[in-house]
Amino acid sequence: MERLSVGPFSTRRLHPSKDALPFVVDNTAVEEITGQSLEQLHASGRLFFADHSYQAKYTLQPGRFAAACSAYFYIDPRSGDFLPLAIRTNVGNDLIYTPLDTKDDWLLAKMMFNNNDYFFGQIFHLANSHAVAEIVYLSALRTLSTRHPVRAFLDRVMYQAFAIRPVGSQILFNPGGYFDQGSAVDHNAVLSFVGHFYPSLAGLFQQNYFSTSLKTRGLVDCPYGPPLKHFAFAEDAGPIVASIRKFVTTYVSSYYPALSLLTGDEEVQAWIKEANTAAQVLDFPSAPLDHTSTLIDILTQVAYLTGVNHHVLNSNAPSELSGTLPFHPSAFYQPIPTAKGVENLVSFLPDLNQSMKQVTLTLRFNRPTLPEEHGELVDMFSASSFLAGQPQGVQQAKDVFRAEMEALGAKVESKGFDERGLSQGMPFVWKVLDPRRIPFFLCV
To answer: 327-382, pLDDT tens digit by residue?
Structure first.
């Protein structure tokens, strides 16, 4: 269920006719686990796939090891639960694990997948939230005056936007930096990942709209398979995005009550042209901008990237779940098995010194002083410097947004286990997206 909460960007539903089965699993095992064959699960739209096989090409650091896992997940035909079905290592003897393996073998397989997915999530967030929001904002800095309302909006949500650049180059992804100290692969893998995923997936502006991404990957409103019974990311992030969009709609309507005001705004039109030409923002709405709804989409997406998308993968998330030990190691310290029958999982895990390096790094992304800074998502539109001179409708929309974020935060805080020992269908309580605890900006 981490694929539907803290790591929701690596998994997609396989289309029954457009997608071939990525790998074969013994159907005797599949039928014992699910009650159906792999082909039946595929044909009924119940089969999901996450692929990290590309990580096999990355160079491992001395004394550290990692697989390059691909995994099947499925919606159980009997219970409707979303469950793991099989994990393929894609290295060594290319073993395929299932829940029918020994407890230790299956646990190691899940840990190997978690290791690959943790790398994916942390570097995907750089290419998907930081890099995309930054280039859109830089286009605005080059074309919009400081008094322009769109510039004011972007200045607010892009607070500290470029802080990751010096931090990343000097202490995080530099040779021997924090990343190299704990990861199975070194900083060169980061460059390789971004070079591949930015142009093909992470950098696509419109394709990564919240609802568009989920629908494209068959995770919501899927016409060729049953719905997910629970989807924590969509359940928690969806209302936040809706509230952001509501505020943005009021904001845009306040300054552009007539379409002619938008089409005649030379600065905004220059911004859209800059983004599509010199900045080369991928999949950005084309120039000229001739619909206020398109401007609402753009500003909503930037605010989503800074205030929601980023914090699902980074900020508090690694230290609360996605990077926690022992189940999410950033490296293994024994070679990936070439045969099943592992008896000592501890030998694969980091020792105390390496564990402390991983824990320390995840904690560096936390922002414990946010309440003192008024930098939480609930305060995204509350700064006096942003509100000064704004129309009355914007002032009121700020109050509505803040009240909605407070209510959502209270709802997240009240989460607990049900009578089955589950929360949102998961065996853990996921509280990462509390708007009162996460920043509204690209936190570093």
So the answer is: 999 999 999 999 999 999 999 999 999 999 999 999 988 876 666 557 899 999 99
Residue pLDDT, tens place only, 63-72: 999 999 999 9
Mean pLDDT of 315-336: 95
Alpha-carbon Rg for the chain, nearest whole angstrom, is 23
CA distance 157 to 153: 7
Pick 262 or 166 by higher pLDDT. Answer: 262
In this structure, the chain runs to a length of 444
Q: Report the pLDDT value the prediction gives residue 167, as an integer from 0 to 100.
A: 86
Tokens representing 296 are 């609402």
β-bridge partners, 49: 12, 72
State the pLDDT at residue 212: 98
Average pLDDT over residues 399-413: 97
SS3 for the chain, per residue? CHHHCCCCCCEEECCCCCCCCCCCCCHHHHHHHHCCCHHHHHHCCCEEEEECHHHHHCCECCCCECCCCEEEEEECCCCCCEEEEEEECCCCCCCEECCCCCHHHHHHHHHHHHHHHHHHHHHHHHHHHHHHHHHHHHHHHCCCCCCCHHHHHHHHHCCCCCCHHHHHHHHHCCCCCHHHHHCCECHHHHHHHHHHHHHHHHCCCHHHCHHHHHHHCCCCCCCCCCCCCCCHHHHHHHHHHHHHHHHHHHHHHHHCCCHHHHHCCHHHHHHHHHHHCCCCCCCCCCCCCCCHHHHHHHHHHHHHHHHHHHHHHCCCHHHHHHCCCCCCCCCECCCCCCCCCCCCHHHHCCCHHHHHHHHHHHHCCCCCCHHHHCCEHHHCCCCHHHHCCCCHHHHHHHHHHHHHHHHHHHHHHCCCCCCCCCECCECCCCCCCCCCCCECCCCC
Q: What is the pLDDT of residues 266-275, one digit of tens each?
A: 999 999 999 9
Contact 231, 3 (CB under 8 A): no
pLDDT at 369: 62
